[in-house]
Amino acid sequence: MLLAIILACIGAFALLTILIYLYRPLYHPKYLEDLYDYHVV
Q: CA dist 35 to 1, 7, 19, 28, 41, Å?
């Protein structure tokens, strides 16, 4: 049961990460994306 919950959390996090990666260029122009990536690093 605990394993299923952990796998579900990992799956949801992975899906969210993929969605953010795919949709981020739609919301941020290229230069803002570069600044964002630089700021996070």
A: 42, 33, 20, 10, 10
Predicted TM-score (pTM) of the model is 0.48
Q: How far apart are CA 32 and CA 34, in angstroms?
A: 5
Give residue-wise pLDDT tens across range 1-41: 899 999 999 999 999 988 877 776 665 556 666 666 665 55
Domain count, the chain: 1
> Which domain covers residue 26, as residue numbers?
2-40
